[in-house]
Amino acid sequence: MIFTKAISYEDIQKELDKDNDIISLVGCETCVRVAGSGGQVRMKKLAIKLREDGFNVKDGFLVPTACTPKLGFAKVSSDINTILSMGCSAGTSNIKRFFPGYKVVETTVDVGLMIEDAKKETLEITIPYDTYKQEVGQSFETFTGVRKDSASELPTKEAK
Amino acid sequence: MIISFRSRSYNDLKNQLNKDDKIAIISCNTCVVSCGVGGSQAMETLAQMLKADGYNVIGKDLISIACTLTLVENHRADPKKKEMYDRATVIIPLICENGLQCVKKVFNDKNIVTVLSTVGTGNFTMDNGVVLTHPFESTSLPQSDEGYPLADIAEKLGFFPSFFDEDEAASPDKTYVTLTIDGQEVVAEKGQNLLQVCLENGIEVPHLCYHEELSEAGVCRLCLVKIQGRRDLTPSCCTHVEDKMVIITEDQELIECRRVILELVLASHNHSCLTCSKGVANIFTSCELQAMVRKYGVDATRYDENPETMPIDDSSPVIAYDPNKCILCGRCVRACEEVAGMKNIGFANRGSQTVVVAGLNQLMDQSACVSCMACVNVCPTGALSEKYLHFEGKDWKKTKIYCDSF
Q1: What residues of A are in contact with residue B101 (Cβ under 8 Å)?
Q2: Residue B192 sits in the same domain as residue B163
Q3: pLDDT per position as a tens digit, B161-195
Q4: Residue B68 is part of a domain; what is its CATH number?
Q5: Does B52 touch chain A if contact means CB atoms closer than 8 Å?
C-alpha cells in the first residue's frame, strides 16, 4: 500500500479560486483511507469546510481504487471545472488522464510504501521516496496517519 | 498500484536453489497480478517449471494482500497450511518489495529467494495496461501522468518484461489421460479437475460455487454432467479425470436439471435485480447468476419466492453486503479462509435459514474484516460488491452508484 500525508487545508485553499472554480471531490477508498489522508470521513470534512469558507463545492465521488479504470464510475458533471483529488499521486495521474481539461488539485502527497498490521492497527513505512527516507521503519496509526511514538509531524509539502 | 518487475532470470533463480530444498511459492493477489508477475497462474507456472527441473516444490499459497502483516501471519498459522510451512526450507515470494517486508517478518526462519523488484507506483489503464507514473528516484525516471508502459521500460531499468517462460524449463514429467467430452477427444493431466479441463478446452459448463483459486465445494450442482458407467449425475467441479472417461456435459435432461436449480435459486430470494455494481456486465465484474439465467432462458421461477428480506449491511466503508442476493455458494467463505486467511465469513443457521455472516453474526465493520476484498472478488452475484459512492447536497448525502455503462 501507498502511504500518503494529507496536504494542509491552508495549502489546498491556496490552489482554489472562490469565484471561478466549480469543484467536485474525487477520492479513493484504499491506501489513502488506511493512511488517514482520504476516505469518506475526510472527504466530507473537507467539502463542508470549503463550502463554509465560500468555495463552490458541488459534489463528491468515492471509488474503490482511483489508480484503475474503476475511476470511470465517477461521473463528474459537465458543469464542474475543478477536481480535488483525494487519491495518492498515482490516483491523481489517473484523474488527470480521465478528466482532461479539468483543473486538478492534489490533497495528499506520497511519502512511500507501507505495510499494515491490522492487529496492532499500525502502519509502517518500508520504502519511502527520497524526501522521506528518514521515515523508514516509522509507525503510524491506521486510519489517522498519526505517528505512534512521537508528536512530531511529517515534513510538509513545502519542505519537500 | 505498486509496480514490480521480474528481476531474476530462471537460471539465476535455479542457482539460488538446491535440489534438496523444500520450496513453498507464495503470491500476493493484488498489484503483482496486474503487473503480470504474480497470482495463482504465475505460481502454478513457476511450480511446474521447478518441478520439471527436479526441484521439490511442496506447495503454493495465494494471499489476498501481502502488505497486510496480519494476513501473512494468519496464512502461516493456518492449521491446513502449517505442515507445508513447517517443512518448507525456502520461500519464493511473488510479492512486491513492500509486501516482502511482511514475508521477512513472518518467515524469518526460512531462506527467502526473491524474484521481483519494485520500482514505484502507477495505474492500470484501459489503453496501455499497467503504467508506471511515479518511479522511485533510484530509477532516474521523471514522474509522468501519462505513465510508462511496463514493456517499454523493463529493459531500460534492467528487468524482464514478462514472467518466467515455461520453455526455459525441462518438459514436465506428467501423466496424461485421454477422455471424450461431448464426442470430442481431449488430453488432460491425470487427476486434473474435470470442470477445469472442460473450460480449458472451450467446453462451457455452468457453475457458480467453483472458482479456480479456491478449494472444491460442489454445492451449487449446476455443473452436473453424465459420466459413462456412473448411475447418477456427477458434479464436474469435484471430479478428477481418469483415462478413457466418456462425459456428456449437456443434453436435454441436464438442461432441464439446470433450469430447475436456477429457478430454485431465483425463488430463494429476490434475484430479479440490477441494482448493484455487478448488475450490468462491465470490464471488472458481472453477475454470473444473471448471465446463467439468460443463457438458460429462465424468465421466471415456478416456485413461490421467499418473501423474507434481510437487512443490507452497509457498515463497511468499502464492501456492500446484501444477503438477499446471496445464493449460498460459499465462495466468499472459502476465499476468506483460504486467500485472506481470516476465517471472518461463515455460514450461520441451518436449512432454509442459512445465511452468510461476518464475524460472530456481526456487522461487517464490527467484525475482524480487513477489507482485503478476497470475498468480493469471487462473489458470483451482487451479494458482496465494492462500493461506488456519490455525495451531494447541503448535508453531503451519500448514494450508491451503479454501473450504467463502460
Answers
A1: 115, 124, 126
A2: no
A3: 999 999 999 988 889 999 999 999 999 999 999 99
A4: 3.40.50
A5: no
